[in-house]
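Researcher: Quick one. two chains, 431 residues in total.
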Amino acid sequence: MAYIALGVFGLVAVAALIYAHARSHKLLSKDWQELVTSIEPMHMRGLEMVALDHLEPQKNQLRLEPDEIWGLVGGKEGLRRMEHNADLMIALAAYVRNWNHDQAIIVAERIRHDSIQLKRSVRRIRWNTHMRRGQLRIPFYVHQAAASYYLMTRRLLSLYETNQYVLYPVLAEAL
Amino acid sequence: MNVSLTAQILWAAGFVEHAVLLLVLIVRGRWRTFPVFTVLIGFNTFRTILLVTLYKYSSPKQYSYAYWGASFLDLALQLGIIFELARVVLKPTGTWVRDAGRKFLLYGVVGAAVAAAIAYAINPSSQGLDFWIEKGNLFSAMVTLELFAAMLFASAQLGLVGSSHVMRLGQGWAIWAIVDLIAEGIYSHFGIGWHDDLPDTVRIIVYQAVTIYWIVTLWRSEPKRRTLSAEMQSYLDGLHVQLQSELKRVSSIEKH
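Model:
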């Protein structure tokens, strides 16, 4: 029994190593064009509405209903796309190191912070949905996820606007 | 004491590889990024000379003391390397990336606790002192492997990709740690000396192959960051200024 546990321990460690290797290889092996074409399109207008509702509260800040918020971010598919695009955005920010090392590192760090916040919110939404509990909290997490994603896109676009205005329109189009 | 020809070849090869790797670390200035790794390689170079001399000219007891003393120091330095690699990967701007340190610590502590429980539950086939030594070896092999896995997993989860050198160093350690765990598992179950110490021979050969890999990879320079030439940058700046002024002109025409 103890040897089975040892085997499982080894297999879990090897699986973690393979995952880490595959993930870093995926990000390192892609060139700029591949990174941009891998971005999955989002309904940015809807997402922006939800994000600004959270980031810049107005007098009528309760105007968006939970169902409406869920629909505007694209539901489950929207959350999956946000998660998928988050890693690509970090890689795209890091890519600017080729032209502006200091700024790119700092912006990439900020985007990474937003990405952690986004993934945490998405995890909580999935967990609460799966466990069929905390239904009241889900709209709050959706708000947080949308705000984090929105901030990531704004930071990335501003970085490219300052350093790579030739590539900026292509990126803006993809996002 | 008699030493087999295979052991002599492996010893000699190990010494040469460690000495060359140490030279590469110093000559190419890699010791600045990896000081603990450099100390370990220097220590291993010295250890080989010391152990061969003691094996040939001293008593088995003296050799045993030196062997185990060096092994403990080796383990401490190995753990130090894991934290050194974590520092390079998880602190790209000099401070811990938010959540990185916590994630690494959480995975590390949980993994070490599981490793301790497994090592405690396993009863190696050897007797007496060897019984406890084997348990200790098994635990250290599990902890080394799981800390490497925890560090690389945490960095991948946070989208952190280290430089080429640190990733190659980590890959080499990870491969060796996997083989080390398999070898210790076999010894624990079948007893020390299984099939003329075949697992140990395989482990040494894998370690030497990894050392050669490090020599090559640390000698090579990191891939250069792509930069725009000064002419191209100036051309793009000019183009941008021109576009801005034309855009303003078009806007002012539209207003009129």
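Chain B touches chain A at residues 92-93, 97-99, 111, 114-115, 118, 121-123, 138, 142, 145-146, 148-150, 152-153, 155-156, 158-162, 167, 171, 174, 178, 181-182, 185, 189, 225-228, 236, 239-240 (CB under 8 Å).
Researcher: Thanks, that's what I needed.
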